[in-house]
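Quick one: Amidohydrolase family protein from Sphingomonas tagetis, structure tokens please.
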Amino acid sequence: MRGSVLMMLGRSAVAAIALCMSGASLARDVVVHAGRLIDGVSPQPREQMSVLIRDGVIQQVAPGYVTPAGYEVVDLKGKTVMPGLIDCHVHMSIDFEAPILNHLVKKPPTDQVITGIVNAGMLIEEGFTSARDVSGYTPVMVTLKKAIAANKVLGPRLWVAGGMIAPTGGHGDMSSGLDPALHKPEWDDNIVSGPQQAIELVRLRHKQGADLVKIAISGGMSSDGDDPRAILLRDEEIKAFVDTAHALGMKVAAHAHGKTAVEHAARLGVDSIEHGTFADAETFKIMKANGSWFVPTMQAGVDLAEMAAARPDMLSEAGRAKITTIGRLTGRNVIIAYNMGVKIAFGTDTRPRKATHELVLLVKAGIPAMAALQMATIHSAELIGAADKIGSIQPGRYGDMIATSGDPLRDMTSMERVEFVMKGGEIVKQ
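--- reply ---
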């Protein structure tokens, strides 16, 4: 098994895995010589820069190629260097190669842990040094987060929601459409009916170690028995989620496709809207007024539409019907949100090794290249609430950096060819 995992991650990650397995912190003094630096916050790149890192944290960003005594040089003079990417909508414990029903019924938590380890390794190798996981079995995701933080597993820094909380029969009610004999007891911790249950489930997530709460306000694409355009939670339930989570220092992410669902979520203080498929200019005006973030997940819509056509066995009949009709609509309105000044973070809702293509889709939709890169770095860090630690190359931030030989400001597909990854001053891929 160990050999197969290493092959899936790629040879460039083997050394980093060995470092993680040791459990030791090997942070040292490093200076990165960057031919072109996109720091995540400046409007233009800077040429010939040095980034000094001590004990995994950036100490200084200096012009020219400087080499202080005792510093190890990482030569990236021929590359574009930028902050490690951040994906605000991942599902680490999902096996994207298996039918959804297999994942729900046949995958025990032990299998989900292995899947999470493999996906985490692939995601960081793609260039993502941080991620927000917005639905997975809570004990599995909290365990994976802690293992990565302790350098026992290779992967991006994680902020986790645990299981997505849904109304009875809504998107996220895993038992919908299944024989009751297949029901798993842990699914009950994801189902809510009424504001009191909402309060209790938020407190449970906090107790379990989750960093945020994910709620399903509308129906979904791949699920049975619900309508993506419909709003399935009552206002008093949404408000109970938001008030309780915020009191505990947790943010709330809302799965919401329909216009009404998005607008209610924004007015009631939800922090981020995931998908927003049927949002329009009026909706985005409400989101902007309430400070709501938009996570458009364009790649997910493309993936689902392709899956419905090429691998119909991967989806239920109801899921195929919905995806065929509206799957490719996901993210079509991102340029409207951008032009209206809505805060946009980067999220893919897809499998590793396809996540960076979301940047290509953003540019194709009309988003300027630098703005797209900032969505995937500093803006995502702001949504997570960790912009003082990740998302930019500035003093005091972790030494999380990636590099590519291309110029993504001219050709965003170069982001699909990340050649160098550093996390906390340690080289993960080169």
